[in-house]
Task: inverse folding
């Protein structure tokens, strides 16, 4: 059983401020450890017989503390400079994918740290729907035939995940309250992630494979018009208005290639 885990930080238990997500910021060390422990809890829930790759998918991609992961996990750190991004390492050789510490999309109120990829993005639409990192990564897993069986993070992203993949196991560990977050206790979060991952591993993997659309239309609205000007020169991209660029393709990997340069 080969399991791929993509890990982020803005959906970890207790987090609420941008200073907590970057090295040198107030509280960063504490939340990097919590991110590590939540990834480890997912590994533990998967069981000792699983062969697991954990992908550190946040910021520098050097947040997870390797020593906190179990022996049956390997860790990918750093950026390999490909369109794969937070999903680097996934392939047809994996049986399932899990996402830990994920967060609400840009232009939502689901998390004080809600965003999609980069802070210069006002909103990202995919086929007319708001697109989160969960959504575009679940599609990327599906591109390789890999189902996404588990997600943890804020309540909004868990709700979105259930709408896209009704059979996914979702474990919310925090929710937004205006500019604040309300979280369960960190140890309780670890317990729920372990238990949820165990349920997911015993579930119907095939039911967790989303159907890829036949055609993709990605609209990126930037916060500054200069970004739209720049990225409108990507081959095949079209500028819709002062701050919005559109890219269309049938092959999802081409969409991810566009994202690599444009977000």
Result:
């Amino acid at each position: 059983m080969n399991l791929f885990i993509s890990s982020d930080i803005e959906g970890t238990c207790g987090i609420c401020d941008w200073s907590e997500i970057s090295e040198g910021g107030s509280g960063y060390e504490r939340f990097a450890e919590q991110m590590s422990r939540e990834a480890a809890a997912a590994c533990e829930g998967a069981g000792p017989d699983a062969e697991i790759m954990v992908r550190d998918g946040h910021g520098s991609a050097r947040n997870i503390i390797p020593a906190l992961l179990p022996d049956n996990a390997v860790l990918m750190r750093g950026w390999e400079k490909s369109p794969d991004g937070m999903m680097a390492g996934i392939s047809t050789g994996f049986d399932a994918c899990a996402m830990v510490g994920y967060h609400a999309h840009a232009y939502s109120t689901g998390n004080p740290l809600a965003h999609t990829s980069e802070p210069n993005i006002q909103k990202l639409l995919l086929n007319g729907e708001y697109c989160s990192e969960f959504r575009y990564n679940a599609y990327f897993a599906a591109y390789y035939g890999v189902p996404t069986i588990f997600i943890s993070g804020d309540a909004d992203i868990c709700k979105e995940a259930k709408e896209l993949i009704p059979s996914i196991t979702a474990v919310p560990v925090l929710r937004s309250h205006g500019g604040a977050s309300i979280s369960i206790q960190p140890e309780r979060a670890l317990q729920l992630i372990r238990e949820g991952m165990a349920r997911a591993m015993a579930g119907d993997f095939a039911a967790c494979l989303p159907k890829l659309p036949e055609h993709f239309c990605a609209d990126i609205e930037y916060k500054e018009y200069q970004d739209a000007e720049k990225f409108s020169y990507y081959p095949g991209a079209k500028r819709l208005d002062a701050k919005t660029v559109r890219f269309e393709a049938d092959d999802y990997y081409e969409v991810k290639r566009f994202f690599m340069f444009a977000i």
Summary: The chain has a mean pLDDT of 98. The helical segments are 28-46, 133-143, 155-164, 186-201, 225-231, 252-262. DSSP finds six helices and twelve strands in the chain. Residues 216-262 form one domain.
